[in-house]
């Protein structure tokens, strides 16, 4: 089965969609960069990108999104030298996400300690946050608060695209993940193991659980090209599919253009 970056789920609200770019704008989560971004379908030239920087900052400001600018470039297209120079000169952090896929049957072969893996509900949401907070506090207390509210909003829905799960070992929360099911694929997102529980196969057992959910569907995920986690995924049998560059600029004050 052919998969691509467009198969990866985005929680953000689509503000507008055109042939060259899709704009995500989600004022309810202004600190969540991935929910407020522009995704290019065609690579812009330097002059177009300069104009888009101005447009995005104005649009963000109009909707109370004041902390960042974010752009994602077309799949499997690396920005050229001129674009890279501009991004660095403007203070952008350049990232590179990689898409991976594995057959569900292969995931089911992974082993680990005995775990109880349960869907997150309003009742056990605190256990999810118990694992989530220490791993995300680097982004600030306001971000943690926003994430908790977004999780609560998601859990109140009768149906949801993104289902969070929590893994317990001996009644203690040790891991969290989000599972996004479609007719074609199952996506693994927000995957994390508590620091005290690492190195014992907890993550492998959690992924085997996802393989059980997926049945015959392939499982997909994205990983940072610079992250050591991708090496673990490759050892587990994931196959590299594609890459996508992005540019993020964090704003501490209003930047005039």
Explain how this protein is built.
Strand 9 (186-193), helix 6 and strand 10 (219-224) form a beta-alpha-beta unit. The chain has an eleven-stranded mixed β-sheet, with helices on both faces. The protein starts with 13 loop residues before the first strand and ends in a 7-residue tail after the last strand. It is of the alpha+beta class. The mean pLDDT is 94. 30% of the residues lie in helices and 29% in strands. The chain has helices at 46-62, 81-89, 104-107, 125-136, 141-155, 202-214, 229-235, and strands at residues 14-17, 21-24, 37-40, 68-72, 93-102, 116-119, 162-169, 172-181, 186-193, 219-224, 239-250. It folds into two domains: 5-97 and 244-250, Gcn5-related N-acetyltransferase (GNAT) (Aminopeptidase), CATH 3.40.630.30; 104-217, 3-Layer(aba) Sandwich (Aminopeptidase). It contains seven helices and eleven strands.
């Amino acid at each position: 089965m052919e998969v691509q970056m467009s198969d990866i789920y985005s929680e953000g609200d689509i503000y507008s969609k055109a042939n060259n770019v899709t704009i995500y704008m989600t004022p309810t989560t202004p600190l969540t960069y991935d929910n407020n971004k522009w995704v290019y379908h065609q690579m812009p030239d330097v002059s177009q990108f300069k104009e888009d920087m101005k447009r995005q900052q104005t649009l963000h400001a109009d909707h109370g999104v004041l902390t960042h600018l974010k752009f994602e470039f077309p799949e499997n297209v690396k920005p050229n030298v001129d674009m890279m120079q501009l991004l660095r000169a403007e203070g952008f952090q350049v990232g590179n996400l990689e898409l991976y896929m594995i057959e569900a049957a292969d995931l089911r072969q992974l082993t680990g300690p005995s775990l109880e893996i349960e869907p997150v509900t309003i009742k056990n949401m605190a256990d999810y946050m118990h694992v989530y907070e220490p791993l995300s506090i680097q982004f600030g207390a306001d971000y943690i608060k926003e994430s908790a509210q977004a999780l609560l909003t998601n859990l109140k829905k009768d149906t949801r695209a993104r289902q969070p799960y929590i893994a317990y070992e001996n009644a203690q929360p040790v891991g969290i993940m989000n599972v996004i099911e479609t007719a074609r694929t199952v996506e693994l997102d927000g995957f994390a193991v508590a620091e005290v529980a690492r190195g014992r196969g907890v993550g492998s057992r959690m992924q085997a659980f996802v393989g059980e959910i997926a049945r015959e569907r392939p499982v997909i995920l994205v990983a940072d090209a610079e992250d050591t986690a991708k090496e673990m995924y490759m050892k587990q049998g994931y196959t590299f599919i594609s890459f996508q560059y992005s540019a993020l600029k964090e704003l501490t004050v209003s930047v005039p253009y």
